[in-house]
Amino acid sequence: MTASASAPLLSASLGQGVSDRLSKKASRHVKERVIEFLLFSAAAFSVFVTLAIVYVLVKESWVFFQTVPLTDFLFDTQWTPLFDDAHYGIMVLLSGTLTSSAVALLVAIPLGTIIALYLSEFAGFKVREIAKPFLELLGGVPTIVYGYFALTFLTPILQKIYPDLPGFNLLSAGLAMGIMIIPYVASLPKTPCAPCRCRCAKAPTPWARRACRPRSGW
After folding, report:
1. Judgement on whether residues 146 and 179 belong to the same structural domain of the protein
2. Residue/partner pairs of 164-171 with CB below 8 Å, 24 or more apart
3. Whole-number Å distance between alpha carbons of 103 and 139
4. What is the pLDDT of residues 36-57, one digit of tens each?
5. How many helices (H) and strands (E) does the chain have?
6. In whole angstroms, what is the distance from residue 146 CA to residue 138 CA?
7. Is residue 121 in some structural domain?
8. pTM beyond 0.90, yes or no
9. Domain range holding 165?
10. Residue 146: other Cβ atoms inside 10 A
11. Spatial distance between the Cα atoms of 140 and 108, rounded to a whole number of angstroms
């Protein structure tokens, strides 16, 4: 009699457990669907924004080139869109960009390479631990700060050397850009290649072998 009385209770408890699991599974399925919908919406919104930007650029460019010939835009040497005799030559902007970029590369590539070699092959552990966060901090400075630095600090120094140098010049802009990209050049991979390891193994002096000692993990 006890067994017959406990059977309905057991079946009821089993049914309750199965229903609880099913309800939890259904609730989890709904949550996963909601999260999936939110992620898809975010991705679709980013794609929509990109397409909208492209559409606006193409539309406004079409209107612009209806009034300004493409040859004048590419080869004119004046950029005066606010003047009565407006010119929209991009050549002056392009040449200024290339000139300042060349100055920046002339500054950043040698200094960044030297810093990278020193930190990876010669600097001690404490020096690396101090220099690396400093370089990362330098790489996180906003570009407007570098522009202000070039205008208020570099330009007066350069004007003492070149008195005829104007306030807005490509030299100070290129130097500031070079300082700005030094952290990116210095953070390039520092693992020596196989010929470098071979030369280090055949180093003739103890100092050379010490200099070739792996510091960044070969």
Report:
1. yes
2. 170/96, 170/99, 170/100, 170/103, 171/103
3. 18
4. 899 999 999 999 999 999 999 9
5. 9, 2
6. 10
7. yes
8. no
9. 96-187
10. 20
11. 16
